[in-house]
Amino acid sequence: MAEFVTIKNLHKNFIKDSVPIKVLNGVNLTVNKGEIFGVIGFSGAGKSTLARCINRLETPDSGEIYVDGTEILSLSDKELRKKRKKIGMVFQNFNLFESKTVYQNIAYPLVIDGYKKSEIRKKVLEAAEMVGLSDKLSEYPGGLSGGQKQRVGIARALVGDPELLLSDESTSALDPQTTIQILDLLKEINKKTNITILMITHELDAIKYTCRKMAVLENGEITEEGLVEDIFRNPTSRTGALFAKVFNEMQHAELGDGAGI
Amino acid sequence: MSLLNEPFWKVFISSFSKEVWDSILPSVSDTLYMTLVASVITLIFGVILGIVLTVTNPTGLAPVKPLYTSMGGFINVLRSLPQMIMIILMIPVSRLIFGKSYGTNACIIAIAASCIPMYARMVESSLLEIEKGKIDAAKALGSTNFQIITKVIIPETFPSLIRGFTVAVISVISMTALAGSFGAGGIGDIAVRFGYQRFQHDVLFATVYVLVILVQGIQLIGDRVSRHILIKRHLLSAGARKRRKHYEKKSDKDTSNSNISAGVSSNAGRVLTN
Lengths: 261, 274
Description:
Radius of gyration of chain A: 19 Å
Order of helices and strands of chain B: HHHHHHHHHHHHH
CATH architecture of chain B: Orthogonal Bundle
Distance between the termini of chain B: 54 Å
Low-confidence stretches of chain A: none
Number of domains of chain B: 1
Helix content of chain B: over 70%
Oligomer: heterodimer
Largest interface: A-B, 32 and 22 residues
Distance between the termini of chain A: 47 Å
Largest sheet of chain A: 6 strands, mixed
């Protein structure tokens, strides 16, 4: 499979009280076209920063990021805006526009791109259909549930036909049942459109449920990378081991409960 | 009629008399004219300055620190001037623009000069209310800064902008009254000439009614509009009365379909409103 996202030696420091804090410390990562790739790590490991560097919401200090062969960090502002339209992003707290209806939210990327009204309508209806929100188009996001909001977020991210979807903790604010629904939706979209999805999360279940390959991010470094089953069965990094342990214990506990009944 | 030689109640009653209102009404239209024009000018320039302040803010979309600091400083200087001094300071400017330093139009300049900096700061603080995440989302979708401002930040903070504008209009009104004593005409002029210099307290009372009604009316409209938008966006729940109405309407509709569902939904309405 072809490499779609390649990150080479990415460094990023945040300055807090004039003391630099290393957030990303030489990250190397390769994601192939059409796969759902998971990145897991504890809070503060640099997961979100990594995702935000890919569409340059954060500017890294050094390193290289290639998306579909284009070096992201050397793009001019105008080129960057064009490239961003091909990189969808879904957020933990949805970040919907509360002044706009569901329809207007999904249509936003097309409106700013100057599409024709009829074309916008067609694409928005398609996207809404895909995420199952065709009956909510005239609602405002304030009246929707968390799961529905995230569906709007996904539709808005996908309406411009991007080739890469960055999911930054997209299910972390949702209840388990809704999480499964959203993950199913992402899987379905991936199957249908062959879009590459980079899933940033701290939830093991989400990774195990959706991804085939994953990486473990620890203190700004990728400490482990490979097939999900391998890492869960045979973790080599500290974070990986911890996650695997927690996961196994959780499964064990569930089994125990079942036996008790 | 003066409080000096008449009892309060007589003056009070006389303040509703036809002669009093006949002498006031022409100046009411002056006041309304000044308020309207000064408010529009304040709105336009206040919003523009507020946007520039927000955008050039060191944490803003396009940080330009020297511009932000110098503009902020200039606004602070203007804001620290008492309104009366601003009116006097603006006399040469009015003379330059209109050829005379008194009259309604001349005072509009002073009013605007005093209210624009205030409203600019209010616009700035309204615009800064927006959650960073929404700007991130707009950026991630490939928006230009101009699109982020016009299509995201302003619509998202619109209710707050309206509330700020309400306050600005009210301070414009209070300043038209002050400007009246500097030859601007209007309600303030009447209040000073009749109420203060000639002790016609019934006229003074009447000017107070006009000002109170004006301010209350504008506050009411501002609150209503911003509330209406928030309710429409489901960011503020409609009051209990409205909710009950909503459910009653719903149950009415249901009655035509089936009696059972009508009973259920009106019960649901009752539970929710209680």
